[in-house]
Amino acid sequence: MRKIDRRELGGLKIRVRPVCRDFFSALGATVMQAVPGEVYTALECGVVDGYGWPSGGIF
Hints:
- It is built from two helices and three strands.
- It is an alpha/beta fold.
- It has one domain.
- Strands 2-1-3 form a three-stranded parallel β-sheet.
- The longest helix is centred in the C-terminal third of the chain and has 7 residues.
- The model has no long low-confidence stretch (mean pLDDT 84).
């Protein structure tokens, strides 16, 4: 896994919630959706490069 430390997200596949889709698309990311329980597996297997989630939504 690599740290994403730039504003341009072109070439990265990001798992997003529908409400964040336009934001990440505007930054150039390829947006993908998956159920919350599959996020870790998707990251581990390289299906997605990262995920976008509001800080208050992760428990």
